[in-house]
Amino acid sequence: MLQNNTIDTVEVKKEYYASGALLAEIPRVNGERHGIVKTYNETGTLYAEVPFVKGKAHGIKKHYDKDNSNIDRLTLYNRGREVAFVRI
């Protein structure tokens, strides 16, 4: 991305469990979380997705059940603050 004649640094940081299994994929722009952060359980199934904007959770966080077949909880964030929670 190009803003104010500067080029943003865009990367996806990956974190791992001690076992080597993927724990999280964290998109970053200029060092701040920006985009959908995905976390996984140790068996490799998706556990949660959290949207971030400029380093703060913003939007609907989706929590998945153990089988990753259904969403079992939703949390709404507004600029880093939790504003609503629903168990499905």
What can you tell me about this protein's structure?
- There is one protein chain.
- With 88 residues, this protein is an all-beta fold.
- It has one domain.
- Helices cover 0% and strands 66% of the residues.
- The radius of gyration is 15 Å and the shape is flat.
- The protein starts with a strand and ends with a strand.
Structure summarized in a few sentences:
This protein has 88 residues and is mainly beta.
Write the layout of secondary structure elements.
Layout lengths: L1 E2 L2 E2 L2 E7 L5 E8 L2 E2 L1 E6 L5 E8 L2 E2 L1 E6 L6 E8 L2 E7 L1
Antiparallel strand pairs: 1-2, 3-4, 4-5, 4-6, 6-7, 7-8, 7-9, 9-10, 10-11
Count of all domains: 1
Q: Indicate the proportion of strand residues.
A: over 45%
Net shape: flat
Unreliable residue stretches = none
Order of helices and strands: EEEEEEEEEEE
The class by helix and strand makeup works out as mainly beta
Quote the distance from N terminus to C terminus.
38 Å
- C-alpha Rg (nearest Å): 15 Å
Give helix % range.
under 10%
Largest sheet: 9 strands, antiparallel
Q: What is the strand tally? A: 11
pLDDT averaged residue by residue = 93
The number of distinct helices, counting runs of at least 4 residues, comes to 0
